[in-house]
Amino acid sequence: MNDRYRANDPLELHTPLCELLGCRYPIVQTAMGWVAGSGLVAATCNAGGFGFLAGATIAPERIEAEILRVKELTGDKPFGLNFHMFQPNAQQLLDLAVRHRVRAVSYGRGPDRKTIARLRNGGIVCMPTVGAVKHALKAIEMGANAVTVQGGEGGGHTGSVPTTVLLPQVLDAVQVPVVAAGGFYDGRGLLAALAFGAQGIAMGTRFLMTRDSGVPAATLQRYLEARDAERIQVSTLVDGMPQRMIPNEVLARLEQASPLRRVLIALGTALQWKAQTGMSSRHAAGVLWRALREDPGSVAQTVMAGNAPLLLQRAMVEGRPEQGVMSAGQVAALIGRLDSCQAVIEGIVAQAVERRAALLQATMA
Q1: CA–CA distance from 196 to each of 80, 152, 248, 271 (Å)?
Q2: Into how many domains does the chain fold?
Q3: Which of 12, 9, 92, 77 shows the shortest CA–CA distance to 277?
Q4: pLDDT of amino acid 264
């Protein structure tokens, strides 16, 4: 055994991902809409993890201030920025990422090779989130230099393949650093992900359920009350895509509504979201036209997609969980209290080190 190796040394959890992102521990906080603001990102980074700012739901006039606020709160520690290419201000986010030299960007499918090349040429790590092997391969082909792989246990938009099946498939198929997401919340999960061959874990629900998230107390209480993992279900009724969430009054109402009624509800919400974001009618029409051209059957889904942001805002910002959406991974059922990001990360690292030492002792016995 290498003399340098110490089973009880937390620094031995330092993987190449830590070097890539500039963080102490291979623990990533995902860019949850309306949740991952400067406060949560800074708390994560100051605790040794790596946080992504949710640029997709921060108002255009506030996004630069939020970036600067993270820098101020962390003493200029590295952090990331999330964006979607369909945002009206996508170009603004790209410009800010380059100008302020954020360490990494996260995104779904969307950026073209030219956009990704611009980011990478600016020294920015491109780390999209994927839910299938083919999407991981496509992302890398487009220029991504790391991928986050989310299994079906994860919250929000998710697939049907469990992390324990999807993760090894992706690891066998790609040569870039892989971050595991979906079902992680403690040190046992971190150690398991590293054993699979991943270079770290990404968590959303675990960071949402902290004292640093800024989520209103009434909404957090709903999360704490979700003690049955089977009831944290996947539904397509909110925006037409599979989304895992905590059941509530909104979901029950959508389940009882007719398909036409759901689209009408979504259209009304989408128009409110359009007004709030400043999206022009021309931009909105362009999104609908692309949907019609690519798949006529997806128009209803495109309209419904405008449903989610405002419903998330009602729960995550306004503290009205009964009128909004509460995206959550199944691990919400396993989290019984709200700690700080510092306590969460320290606890994960300590447990991972403890379990690793126990495994080494068992194998040497």
Answers
A1: 25, 17, 35, 44
A2: 2
A3: 92
A4: 64
Does residue 54 belong to any structural domain of this protein? yes
Name the E strands within the chain.
27-29, 50-54, 80-82, 104-106, 125-126, 129-130, 147-150, 156-157, 178-181, 200-203, 233-235, 243-245
Token code pair at residue 335: 């989290």
Residue 132: CATH number of its domain: 3.20.20.70
Q: Minimum mean pLDDT among 152-161, 212-221, 233-242, 313-322: which range?
A: 233-242
Give residue 1's pLDDT band: very low, low, confident or very high (50, 70, 90). Answer: very low
Burial per residue of 203-213, b for 16 or more beta-carbon CB atoms within 10 angstroms, e otherwise: bbbbbbbbbbb
Which pair of structure tokens corresponds to residue 167?
């993760």
Closest CA to 8 of 365, 343, 351, 362: 351
DSSP 210: B
Q: How far apart are CA 227 and CA 235, in angstroms?
A: 19
pTM (predicted TM-score): 0.88
Phi, psi torsion values for 317, nearest 5 degrees: -115, -45
**The residue to which tokens 């709200």 are assigned:** 338
> Tokens for 57?
């739901």
Question: Residue 262 sits in which domain range?
Answer: 233-327
Same domain, 19 and 146: yes
Mean pLDDT of the chain: 88
- Which pLDDT score, from 0 to 100, does residue 97 have? 98
State residue 238's pLDDT score.
Answer: 84
pLDDT score recorded for residue 86: 83
Closest CA to 206 of 183, 234, 231: 183
Q: Tell me how far apart the alpha carbons of residues 152 and 323 are, in angstroms, rounded to a whole number.
A: 25
Is 172 found in the same domain as 120? Answer: yes
